[in-house]
Amino acid sequence: MIPEERLHLRRLLLVVDDQKINQDLLGTILGNEFDLIYADGGREAIDQVMLHKDMLSAVLLDLVMPEMDGFAVMDVMKADEELARIPILVLTAEKTAELEALGRGASGFIPKPFESHEIILARVRSFVELAEGRRLIHAAECDPRTGLYTKEFFFSYAEQIERFHPDWRMTEFALRISRYRLLRELYGQEFLDSVSRALAQHLMENAKAAQGICARASEDTYYLFLRRGCVGLEQIRRLQQELNTLREHMDLRLDAGMCDIERSEMDVRRRFSCAEAACAMVHQDHNGELVVYDSVMHEKQLYRQRLINDLPRAVAEHELKVYYQPKYDITKDTPVLSGAEALVRWQHPEFGMIPPGDFIPLFEQNGLIGRVDLYVWEESARQLQKWREQFGTRFPITVSVNVSSMDIHMPGLEEKLNRLVDTYGIRPEELHLELTESAYMEDARLMQEVTDHLRSMGFRIEMDDFGAGYSSLNMLSTLPVDVLKMDMMFVRRLSREDSREYRFIEIVHDIARMLDIPMIAEGVEDAVQLELLKKIGCEYIQGYYFSPPVPAEAFEEMMKGALR
Ligand code: C2E
Ligand code: CA
Ligand code: CA
Asked: 262: domain range?
């Protein structure tokens, strides 16, 4: 179907004939319906075709002309990728030339001498419409830049293959040109188009060899649907290498994902989205350049999806449990219990106790983390109130909660925290907010604004995982922080005074002292570490040496024990 608006558009035709009288005649016949341009010979024809290639609907071409004849014009046009698309209608008096003209690219004829005007008009009209219809169908099937199938057409083709060959085992690959946008910025669209075309060529060859098909699924992503047994992973690796050597010194990389799930398990579209998901994982947690999406990964994805779906229920039904890990003041002779870090777990009715590592990063990715954190903050505030009522001023305990870097963007963050403090009648000083060092790096200005505000409201800010990120000293001196929390990594490797870790922690402590803020070391697992940290002058410690995170009741027992 030709779209309505195209039907009302006047098409442009090029009439090539060395006889002026023929030009005039065709002008009279076609001029009412078409826009016409003319060329008296072959060379001029080529010039005109080049000039108007994007707009030309057809070329009406005389065969016999001096200097450059019609055949030579066809040869030139056929050799050029863009010009070859323009349909050619040959004007000829010789029946014998027709076969040769067809072979060299003509797609129709108008016999000379010219028949009745109506017949010629009708011929040209139907010829142009037919050619456009074909081109439109082709456009729906194929990506114009590479000539590969479009995603939709590819899928219907793939479905057909599966229908006709129920016994074939197929493999789905998704391939993506790595860092496409960056490359575009660096080298331009034209460069990437040439890379895409070259890659498409390789893909087509591979598909052909493996009785399969390929498509350009999006600007940087390609699909390959290949018959298993015809294709090995080496072939994909070779493709990756081919792209790499396509343009020297450019570090072109092809990420690859493969789906290894049986056809009975999911339909072809879903298998390709799995291949694409695998491809997207190349950067994240795999060093290789080909990730296989298999049933293990599928289970993992399903598990993650379940967690996402179940979160609202978990919040409503109090399946999230807050555990407390004690913090000790080690500046006195004996360590003194001084506070706790609130750490969340998920008591899932089906999966059992889920550690935060399973769901915190997941929810940080998809923006659900705020719901978890709000829950934990409220639970901690409620617990603080309870302990205050129970122990009064005999035990001035503080609770530190984790604030994900995403929470900084939470609308009304300050009001929400304020409301908690009001509702549970606690002082903001009792609630410490742990922010990771990396969060400071993400958006330093916003972070500074928000933390400034929170501090002015009375909350204490702890910089979590310090040393794991890349803070500059300059940033440290300007940031509003009340406590520096040394990253566990350094403490875990701390076993001797004469070591890099010891010196590193010592330097960080010097900085903290210079800024007049205490340091807390977490992940302390043995007495040696405790002694070394004491020697450095570290003020607080937290770690398995004293206790893992425990439920509120168990923590309460520790408090009672400390009072005895
Ligand atoms: P984090 O904030 O650095 O918390 C410290 C983690 O180290 C906790 O793991 C804790 O159980 C563990 N840990 C404590 N002492 C030791 C030790 O001596 N040795 C070793 N090997 N580990 C120790 P957990 O509870 O599994 O939490 C992991 C991470 O999950 C936390 O790291 C934090 O980033 C995140 N997280 C936990 N609860 C929350 C929460 O409510 N909100 C947010 N946003 N993140 C949370
Ligand atoms: Ca923390
Ligand atoms: Ca930490």
From this structure: 151-293
Q: Assess whether the C-beta atom of 525 lies below 6 angstroms from ligand 1.
A: yes
CB neighbour burial string for 479-502, b if at least 16 within 10 angstroms, e if fewer: bbbbbbbbbbebbebbeeeeeebb
Residue 473 and residue 342 in one domain: yes
pTM, 2 dp: 0.69
Q: Is there an atom of ligand 1 within 6 Å of 360 CB?
A: yes
- Residue 249 is predicted with a pLDDT of 67
Is the domain of 281 the same as that of 380? no
Model confidence over 173-185: pLDDT tens digits? 999 998 898 889 8
Give the chain's mean pLDDT. 90
Residues in the chain predicted with pLDDT less than 50, given as ranges, are 1-8
Token pair listed for 555: 């923590």
Which conformational region is residue 322 in: left (phi greater than 0), alpha (psi within -120 to 50 degrees), or beta? Answer: beta
**Relative to the CA of 524, which ligand 1 atom is closest?**
18
Q: How many domains does the chain have?
A: 3
The reply to whether 277 and 320 lie within a common domain is: no
Evaluate whether residue 243 is within a structural domain: yes
Q: Are residues 262 and 335 in the same domain?
A: no
Q: Position of tokens 């009064």?
A: 392
- Residue 326 DSSP class: E
73 and 104 fall within a common domain: yes
